[in-house]
Amino acid sequence: MKAQSQQDLRKCELLILDELGFVPFHQDGSELLFNVIADCYERRSVIVTSNLEFGQWNQIFGDNRLTAALIDRLVHHSHILAFTGDSIRLRQAMERSEHVMIATPGQTTANSDSG
Protein backbone atom coordinates (compact mmCIF):
# COMPACT_ATOMS: atom_id res chain seq x y z
CA MET A 1 0.00 0.00 0.00
CA LYS A 2 1.32 3.43 -0.84
CA ALA A 3 2.46 5.55 2.08
CA GLN A 4 -0.06 8.25 1.13
CA SER A 5 -2.93 5.74 1.26
CA GLN A 6 -1.78 4.56 4.68
CA GLN A 7 -1.67 8.15 5.93
CA ASP A 8 -5.16 8.79 4.53
CA LEU A 9 -6.51 5.71 6.34
CA ARG A 10 -4.91 6.84 9.60
CA LYS A 11 -6.77 10.15 9.34
CA CYS A 12 -10.21 8.55 9.16
CA GLU A 13 -12.23 8.06 12.33
CA LEU A 14 -14.42 5.30 10.89
CA LEU A 15 -13.53 2.51 8.47
CA ILE A 16 -16.43 0.67 6.83
CA LEU A 17 -15.84 -2.70 5.18
CA ASP A 18 -19.06 -3.57 3.36
CA GLU A 19 -19.87 -7.04 2.02
CA LEU A 20 -16.70 -8.62 3.39
CA GLY A 21 -16.44 -12.09 1.94
CA PHE A 22 -18.27 -11.33 -1.28
CA VAL A 23 -14.98 -11.88 -3.10
CA PRO A 24 -12.14 -13.93 -1.54
CA PHE A 25 -8.80 -12.21 -0.96
CA HIS A 26 -5.46 -13.31 -2.35
CA GLN A 27 -2.74 -13.76 0.27
CA ASP A 28 -1.32 -10.26 -0.27
CA GLY A 29 -4.78 -8.72 0.07
CA SER A 30 -5.48 -10.70 3.24
CA GLU A 31 -2.23 -9.55 4.80
CA LEU A 32 -2.85 -5.95 3.76
CA LEU A 33 -6.35 -5.95 5.26
CA PHE A 34 -5.00 -7.51 8.45
CA ASN A 35 -2.44 -4.70 8.72
CA VAL A 36 -5.17 -2.07 8.18
CA ILE A 37 -7.37 -3.69 10.87
CA ALA A 38 -4.41 -4.05 13.22
CA ASP A 39 -3.59 -0.36 12.71
CA CYS A 40 -7.20 0.57 13.53
CA TYR A 41 -7.29 -1.69 16.61
CA GLU A 42 -8.20 0.37 19.69
CA ARG A 43 -7.62 3.60 17.72
CA ARG A 44 -10.46 3.89 15.20
CA SER A 45 -13.98 2.58 14.75
CA VAL A 46 -14.55 -0.18 12.23
CA ILE A 47 -17.86 -1.40 10.81
CA VAL A 48 -17.90 -4.69 8.93
CA THR A 49 -20.83 -6.16 7.07
CA SER A 50 -20.78 -9.74 5.84
CA ASN A 51 -23.29 -12.44 5.14
CA LEU A 52 -20.80 -15.03 6.38
CA GLU A 53 -20.46 -16.21 9.96
CA PHE A 54 -17.03 -15.85 11.58
CA GLY A 55 -16.50 -19.60 11.20
CA GLN A 56 -16.61 -19.17 7.42
CA TRP A 57 -14.16 -16.29 7.23
CA ASN A 58 -11.23 -18.59 6.54
CA GLN A 59 -12.79 -19.01 3.09
CA ILE A 60 -12.22 -15.29 2.58
CA PHE A 61 -8.66 -15.05 3.84
CA GLY A 62 -7.34 -18.58 3.29
CA ASP A 63 -5.15 -18.61 6.40
CA ASN A 64 -6.41 -19.90 9.75
CA ARG A 65 -3.98 -17.94 11.93
CA LEU A 66 -4.43 -14.65 10.08
CA THR A 67 -8.22 -15.07 10.12
CA ALA A 68 -8.26 -15.83 13.86
CA ALA A 69 -6.03 -12.82 14.62
CA LEU A 70 -8.14 -10.52 12.44
CA ILE A 71 -11.42 -11.67 14.05
CA ASP A 72 -9.83 -11.33 17.50
CA ARG A 73 -9.02 -7.68 16.85
CA LEU A 74 -12.43 -6.96 15.36
CA VAL A 75 -14.55 -8.52 18.10
CA HIS A 76 -12.58 -7.17 21.07
CA HIS A 77 -14.55 -4.11 22.33
CA SER A 78 -17.18 -4.67 19.61
CA HIS A 79 -20.94 -4.74 19.36
CA ILE A 80 -22.01 -7.59 17.10
CA LEU A 81 -25.36 -7.37 15.38
CA ALA A 82 -26.45 -10.64 13.79
CA PHE A 83 -29.40 -10.60 11.44
CA THR A 84 -31.13 -13.76 10.33
CA GLY A 85 -33.77 -14.38 7.72
CA ASP A 86 -34.21 -13.74 4.06
CA SER A 87 -32.40 -11.00 2.22
CA ILE A 88 -34.45 -7.82 2.08
CA ARG A 89 -33.12 -7.10 -1.42
CA LEU A 90 -34.25 -10.52 -2.64
CA ARG A 91 -37.67 -10.08 -1.03
CA GLN A 92 -38.10 -6.63 -2.61
CA ALA A 93 -37.07 -7.97 -6.03
CA MET A 94 -39.56 -10.81 -5.74
CA GLU A 95 -42.33 -8.38 -4.77
CA ARG A 96 -41.52 -6.20 -7.78
CA SER A 97 -41.44 -9.19 -10.11
CA GLU A 98 -45.02 -10.10 -9.16
CA HIS A 99 -46.12 -6.83 -10.78
CA VAL A 100 -43.84 -6.92 -13.82
CA MET A 101 -44.15 -9.19 -16.84
CA ILE A 102 -40.85 -9.78 -18.58
CA ALA A 103 -41.17 -10.30 -22.32
CA THR A 104 -38.54 -11.97 -24.44
CA PRO A 105 -37.60 -10.40 -27.81
CA GLY A 106 -40.35 -10.95 -30.38
CA GLN A 107 -42.95 -11.83 -27.74
CA THR A 108 -46.04 -9.66 -27.50
CA THR A 109 -47.83 -9.02 -24.24
CA ALA A 110 -51.46 -8.20 -23.67
CA ASN A 111 -52.17 -4.91 -21.94
CA SER A 112 -55.15 -5.16 -19.59
CA ASP A 113 -55.65 -1.37 -19.71
CA SER A 114 -56.38 -1.31 -23.44
CA GLY A 115 -60.05 -1.28 -23.89
Task: Write out key terms for the chains shown.
mainly alpha; 115 residues; Rossmann fold
Layout: helices, strands, pairs:
Layout: H1 3-11, E1 14-17, H2 27-40, E2 45-48, H3 58-61, H4 64-75, H5 88-97
Helix pairs in contact: 2-4
Describe the protein in words:
43% of the residues lie in helices and 7% in strands. It is mainly alpha-helical and 115 residues long. It has a single domain, classed as 3-Layer(aba) Sandwich (Rossmann fold). Strands 1-2 form a two-stranded parallel sheet. α2 (27-40) runs parallel beside α4. 5% of the residues are buried.
Return the CATH topology. Answer: Rossmann fold
Structural class, from helix and strand content?
Answer: mainly alpha
Number of helices: 5
Q: Could you give the order of the helices and strands?
A: HEHEHHH
- The CATH homologous superfamily is termed P-loop containing nucleotide triphosphate hydrolases
Integer count of domains: 1
Proportion of beta-strand residues: 5-15%
Helical residue percent band: 40-55%
- What oligomeric state do these chains adopt? single chain
What CATH architecture do you see?
A: 3-Layer(aba) Sandwich
Using DSSP, what is the number of strands?
2
Mean pLDDT across all amino acids: 84
The dominant shape is: elongated
Concise account of the structure shown:
The protein has 115 residues and is mainly α. It contains 5 helices and 2 strands.
